[in-house]
Amino acid sequence: MQSAILSIAQSELVMFALHRNLKSFPKILGTCGEFYAVDSFQPYSEIYPRFLRDMSWLEKAKIASSFLKLIQDFQNSQVGLLSHCDIQENNFGLTRYLNVKAIDVDLVFSKDKMEEILTQPSCQSDYECNFFDCQSECDTKNGRCTMKSVTNNLQVLCRNILYPKWPFVGLFSSKIPIKIRTRFKQILTYCRSEIFGKFSNTHLQVNQTLKELAFLLSTSFL
User: Fold this and answer.
1) Tell me: the pLDDT tens digits for 24-69?
2) What is the b/e burial string over 53-82, where b = at least 16 CB atoms within 10 angstroms of the residue's CB?
3) Residue pair 84/108 in contact by the 8 Å Cβ criterion
4) Which of 24, 55, 113, 144 sits a CA distance of 20 to 30 A from 177?
5) Crossing angle for the helix pair 178-191 and 204-219, nearest 10 degrees?
6) DSSP code for 164
7) pTM for the structure as a whole
């Protein structure tokens, strides 16, 4: 019983257990008190940014497609929408087949928890309503942060990992095939923008952008 209590106290372990049906989360191999074991992965941060330029387009496209599937998984978890408030290279792993796994989920929260987190601070501008990568709009009249989000999971993924602004290097900072380059860059630029961030995680525009990015990646080999 003591071992079980210690296990339940690990919020990350609980998150993995709740979403064991989603491929974007690691599989739990075993637990012992406060310790637990999951599948072994190569941290995505190990290839960033040193090896990105040496990767083939096929490798980059596989990784990006898996990131997009992870965003979809976060939209459709069995506890509802999940918001990832720390989308950076250190928090994801890669399998030997280049599938992406969320390996650090301490800052992944359900919709109810996000309401509790984002509406607490007082503010004078939107930039004071930050919780890592999750940001909401400031009601300047009342001086309180609201639940009206100005970021979403896909926007932060595009902004931080897929296509960050110069001088930062992202997965698609180079080697985009000519046949999709113009349209692909247009979508990624829009996707990382503040305007796009104001759409909710489940907004029609977000879902359409997910589908178009996935379509361009799949057709880039034809």
Assistant:
1) 999 999 888 778 888 889 989 888 777 787 899 999 999 999 999 9
2) eebeeebbbbbbbbbbbbbbbbbebeeebb
3) yes
4) 24
5) 160
6) P
7) 0.93
